[in-house]
């Protein structure tokens, strides 16, 4: 582990009965860094967040903040604050009293609470709303109140458990940028759980993709998007098209053997640890160059032959479902091509993600991240959890 890590998780394991949710997970986060835990439901990201907060007891491993072991400390002694997906606001309390709830639990004088609440309201654009109840606020305003309650106690680490998922799409786009700007201005360390890859990339300095209780890959949004470490990460980051290929490594290139619906191609290894044999190719719909079959090739890369099965308009591009032999893939284009049209799909080498196909008994080694810098309906019973400091 890097000694400069502010939040350090070492060999953390969590289980419920015989079910293992986290398995010897390692993660380091720098002071002031915004890290997004990204993954599908059941991957362990929320369990990890709750273990950091102190609401889940690990069966093994350690959690340290600024060199202090907090693994067995109660939530209110960890210097953290948690914002829940449901916001967990008291419906009978005003905005001001909800924001000041954690300060009241700490026993601060009324004048100090009022002063701090006023500062938070001004910081979050809630001035003038202090007397309202949560039911009289918009979703975005309720989210700000929940965030304000967490920030009021001046936490060392801000934990965010999918706090934007209850907002409509338009408001969500606005609020996520507001949270990111606020985090940067305050310099606070933040850990954000989400299943939305666009949200993770827009908000975080570093994205940690989780799979089955382990870290599949950690890096900057650009690294995760452009250099996925596994077929799972590639698919999760939008490269859902998949083809089974065969290739032979020759020096600094891998030669892809021709098949019944695609021609031979050479792709630079570009540092990828590939071996000759069966390959799984992944690529995004927007990376494909789609043309009528008799048009001259638009670019170099892996060329596929197929026919259009269906077309839909996404706004800004037409998405084509194309059948390559027995395999359906998606390809985007500025103009639509009619169903049954014979087409050529070309995937540029830099947009083609290649991975060796694992053997039936093979399993990928666990990926850990130990570098702290980027490589880069209300439930009052939970409000006590949100007020930790």
From TrEMBL:
Residues 358-389 are annotated as: Disordered. GO terms for cellular component: ATP-binding cassette (ABC) transporter complex, substrate-binding subunit-containing. Pfam families: ABC_tran (PF00005), TOBE_2 (PF08402). Residues 7-237 form the ABC transporter domain. It comes from Ancylobacter tetraedralis. Transmembrane segments: none annotated. PANTHER family: MALTODEXTRIN IMPORT ATP-BINDING PROTEIN MSMX (PTHR43875), TREHALOSE IMPORT ATP-BINDING PROTEIN SUGC (PTHR43875:SF15). This is ABC-type sugar transport system ATPase subunit. Keywords: ATP-binding, Cell membrane, Membrane, Nucleotide-binding, Sugar transport, Translocase, Transport. It is a peripheral membrane protein. The keyword Iron-sulfur does not apply. Its main location: membrane. Residues 358-377 have a biased composition (Low complexity). Residues 378-389 have a biased composition (Basic and acidic residues). It is found in: Cell inner membrane. One of its GO terms (molecular function) is ATP binding. Belongs to the ABC transporter superfamily.
